[in-house]
Write a structure and sequence with these properties.
Elements: H1 2-23, H2 26-48, H3 54-76, H4 78-87, H5 91-117, H6 120-127, H7 130-142, H8 149-168
Length: 170
Amino acid sequence: MRFTSIITARLHRFQKIALFAILTPMWIIYSLAAAMFWGLDYALTGKVLEKIQFSTLITIELFFGFIAMLGLMLASGAYTADLPALLFSSKKTILYIVLIIICFNIGNILIVLSITKGNATLSGLIEISYPLFIAMFSWLLFNEVTVNLGTSIGGGLILIGVLSIYLFNR
């Protein structure tokens, strides 16, 4: 009887998870999965940086990331549409791509340096404030405003969280 109740409980839990997955928009699932992988990445980065330099780790990450994304691009056939689009892009689009590359690399270097000088948990908790900067730059550069009561409360909580981490970990 005990075995049957365990199986029934697990099936019921699986049904709840399946229902959550069905009813939840994919962007939320992708975001949570990304957060999970970033969390694992930061925790592992903290340990690896005890053994090797940050520049070596970033080089390894970017090299294998390049190989993986090149394979994905070739397998999906995205290059057939994207290559002509890039070749005939406006100067503004090319500038955006250059700035994205610069920001991506500077951001990677700075977070790894932060983990090296502090620890992965605190660095990640502070870095989680980046949505505030997304909103700020989207507004400053593109005049896009997606602020409502919910996003304002969330942004305020992020600021309070960053301030709390700073004050209690000086």
